[in-house]
């Protein structure tokens, strides 16, 4: 880092983190917590870059070019709490002289668990059923009531065969006897595909056309904006289920709601939304979508592990080393 500080480095945590991690952070650094636990504004983040040695944002903080429009900021690292970092303009961060880190690996299993939860909920109409019971509208068992889709033994299509996609594939394959197919824009090591006997397909379209369940695991941001569009939804089977635990902007939400209502596909399980926490009214209105409030990594063990990973990155950085999880 070069300019070692005599006193403890000043670190800003933009949201409340699990207690154990906050306590450890306070022992090590001069920590400021955003006690209100609401997302910080772009202006507040810009100011923070001048006031702190490290800023630790989350997925719900927008660290865009405007937030990073600072000349010679005091902060030299954005140690993000989370694996996805499309909320950070990494080019602008680099220009401002900031190192960016994330927290991969520790949340893969937990997020994959939620993808499977969404798959089952959407396929077996669990959200719809629960709403019916709670509304006092259930009239009793009958052979034709709330018929869903059987996913066991079907084809599990993964778009983005990284760590989380592969964990989801393991659960689908070993837990539900599903055949795994995938597309990834980057080469996948054969031994990683072999874990689940996963077969590569040469395009997104090929996976969409063949899969009974399509699970999205690619990064968000401009490059994958509305990758799942009206045209691509039309390629899916009418019985298919779409699961998104990646980033909201990957799916055109209005197009998805229209496809669900038209019967182009059977159901969707969504944990992430473009512009969240706002959700397009069309998705809120359809019974065929299961909607969760971005819970992919939401277990205490995982959220703590994410915190420890941020601490590892900060420690390496303040020692003058390259943090293990440097992404920019
Ligand atoms: C991430 O880490 O990117 C998730 O979306 C939040 O855990």
Automatic annotation (TrEMBL):
Residues 11-327 form the D-isomer specific 2-hydroxyacid dehydrogenase catalytic domain. Belongs to the D-isomer specific 2-hydroxyacid dehydrogenase family. It comes from the Bacteria. The keyword Transmembrane helix does not apply. Gene3D superfamilies: NAD(P)-binding Rossmann-like Domain (3.40.50.720). InterPro entries: D-isomer_2-hydroxyacid_DH (IPR050223), D-isomer_2_OHA_DH_cat_dom (IPR006139), D-isomer_DH_CS (IPR029753), D-isomer_DH_NAD-bd (IPR006140), NAD(P)-bd_dom_sf (IPR036291). GO terms for cellular component: cytosol. It holds the Pfam family 2-Hacid_dh. The keyword Cell division does not apply. GO terms for molecular function: glyoxylate reductase (NADPH) activity; hydroxypyruvate reductase [NAD(P)H] activity; NAD binding. It comes from Methylobrevis albus. The lineage of its organism: Bacteria, Pseudomonadati, Pseudomonadota, Alphaproteobacteria, Hyphomicrobiales. This is D-glycerate dehydrogenase. Keywords: NAD, Oxidoreductase. Residues 116-296 form the D-isomer specific 2-hydroxyacid dehydrogenase NAD-binding domain.
């Amino acid at each position: 880092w070069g300019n070692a500080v005599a006193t403890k480095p000043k670190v800003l945590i933009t949201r409340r983190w699990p207690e154990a991690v906050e306590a450890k952070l306070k022992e090590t650094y001069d920590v400021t917590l955003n006690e209100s636990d609401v997302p910080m504004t772009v202006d507040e983040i810009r100011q923070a870059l001048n006031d702190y040695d490290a800023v630790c944002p989350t997925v719900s903080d927008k660290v865009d070019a405007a937030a990073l429009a600072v000349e010679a900021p005091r902060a030299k690292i954005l140690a993000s709490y989370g694996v996805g970092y499309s909320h950070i303009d990494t080019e602008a961060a680099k220009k401002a002289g900031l190192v960016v880190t994330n927290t991969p690996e520790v949340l893969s299993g937990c997020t994959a668990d939620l993808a499977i939860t969404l798959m089952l909920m959407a396929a077996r109409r669990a959200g719809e059923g629960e709403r019916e019971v709670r509304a006092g509208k259930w009239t009793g068992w009958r052979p034709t009531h709330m018929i869903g889709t059987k996913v066991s033994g079907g084809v599990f299509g993964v778009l983005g065969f990284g760590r989380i996609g592969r964990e989801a594939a393991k659960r689908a394959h070993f837990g539900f006897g599903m055949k795994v197919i995938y597309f990834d824009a980057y080469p996948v090591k054969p031994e990683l595909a072999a874990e689940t006997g996963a077969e590569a397909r040469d395009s997104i379209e090929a996976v969409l056309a063949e899969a009974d369940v399509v699970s999205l695991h690619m990064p968000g941001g401009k490059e994958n904006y509305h990758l799942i569009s009206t045209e691509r939804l039309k390629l899916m089977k009418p019985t298919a289920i779409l699961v998104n635990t990646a980033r909201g902007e990957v799916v055109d939400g209005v197009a998805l709601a229209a496809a669900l209502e038209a019967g182009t596909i059977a159901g969707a399980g969504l944990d992430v939304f473009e512009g969240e926490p706002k959700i397009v009214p069309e998705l809120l209105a359809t019974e065929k979508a299961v909607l969760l409030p971005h819970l992919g990594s939401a277990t205490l063990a995982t959220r703590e592990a994410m915190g420890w990973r941020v601490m590892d990155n900060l420690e390496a950085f303040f020692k003058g080393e390259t943090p293990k999880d440097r992404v920019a």
